[in-house]
Specification:
This protein has 12 helices and 10 strands. The chain is of the alpha+beta class. The strands form 3 sheets. The chain has a 4-stranded mixed beta sheet with strand order 1-2-3-4. Strands 6-5-9-8 form a 4-stranded antiparallel beta sheet, with helices on one face. The protein has a two-stranded antiparallel ribbon with strand order 7-10. Strand 3, helix 7 and strand 4 form a beta-alpha-beta unit. Helix 5 packs parallel to helix 7. The termini are far apart.
């Protein structure tokens, strides 16, 4: 069997991207070793695609090098409801094997679990390089202030996910499942993102008056809508509305804020106060249109909508109304 037949098509596409990135920006990567450059370019490509940010921005999140605790990149999200998201990236790139069949190594999964236990404990002493140390200190400072880290470990390779044996090992660990999640990202994931051309286009019916402003060549609309409108959007489009939100849904029972939102919507006496209890949601879009001749109750047509803040609220609303359709 020839190497061409053995080569996975998606793995080959990603490899071309990686090679092109090294050729176009050689100064971004370690000097001398071409294999290390390609490995770093692979992680950079994965971070840029998964976080939906430019390569230049993803480069600022890179932490690989000596004493990096096995972490190749870190993304720290904003504090929200006493919690903050941290996404750790580790990459394993097969330079000369593009068959796409190698599983993510168990030893590296184990190393990452040990890393999480050490990095997120402010009382543990760690020896880290200058690229990663300031970010770990930022995380530890937030932890000392009482904020709870929600950690997403993204293991990237140009092969398959870890073995069932490795998954069993993960399940036996003492890492709290309501704080630590594991995600696999590979060449197929990368190409799937490249292929996504369909955007979420729909309408939202607003209630009452709204504020519409233009500044810096953009428009902002601030208004109210019913929880049923939100639930219907997610019934129709699902997690496609959250593609830019790496945090995704944490569930009801593993997240105290989601549980409180759910209980409020279930309680007939509290339900009417939901608007005042919640911080709202933020939707970005490519374009929105409304009838400017009206002064209230707009029907807003939105193209390319994505929920970038409040995704947890939206999913919990969907669950609550599914369980209580008469609400």
């Amino acid at each position: 069997m020839s190497n061409q037949i053995q080569t996975d098509f998606n793995a080959s596409i990603l490899d071309q991207r990686v090679a092109g990135l090294v050729a176009e920006h050689p100064e971004w990567f370690p000097d001398g070793d071409e294999d290390k450059k390609k490995s770093a370019a692979f992680v950079l490509s994965c971070m840029s695609a998964l976080l939906d940010i430019p390569l230049e921005s993803a480069r600022d999140l890179m932490t690989d090098g000596g004493n990096d605790a096995g972490v190749d990149g870190i993304f720290i999200g904003d504090v929200e409801d006493g919690e903050f998201q941290v996404t750790l990236f580790q990459g394993k790139y097969k330079i000369r094997d593009l068959r796409g069949i190698a599983a993510f190594p168990e030893r590296d999964v184990q190393h990452m679990a040990q890393t999480v236990s050490a990095l997120f404990n402010p009382d543990r002493t760690v020896d880290l390089n200058p690229r990663i140390l300031p970010r770990i200190e930022e995380i530890r400072s937030l932890v000392r202030d009482g904020y709870i880290p929600l950690i997403c470990i993204v293991l990237c390779n140009n092969g398959t996910i870890w073995t069932e044996q490795t998954q069993n090992w993960i399940d036996r660990q003492s890492l709290p499942q309501d704080q630590v999640t594991w995600k696999h990202f590979n060449h197929d994931s990368f190409v799937e993102i490249l292929k996504k051309t369909k955007t979420v286009d729909d309408i939202i019916k607003l209630s009452g008056q709204a504020i519409i402003e233009e500044f810096d060549f953009r428009r902002v609309l601030l208004g109210k809508t019913s929880v049923r409108e939100i639930a219907q959007l997610f019934d129709k489009h699902g997690d496609a509305l959250l593609d830019r939100n790496i945090r995704r849904y944490l569930g009801l029972h593993s997240n105290r804020v989601n549980s409180a939102i759910y209980q409020t919507l279930q309680d007939e006496q509290q339900r009417g106060n939901f608007y005042f209890f919640n911080n709202g949601i933020t939707i970005i879009c490519r374009k929105f249109r409304h009838n400017a001749l009206q002064d209230s109750n707009y029907i807003v047509k939105i193209e390319g909508m994505q929920v970038i803040n409040g995704g947890q609220t939206c999913k919990t609303i969907q669950c609550a109304l599914m369980d209580t359709p008469e609400a």
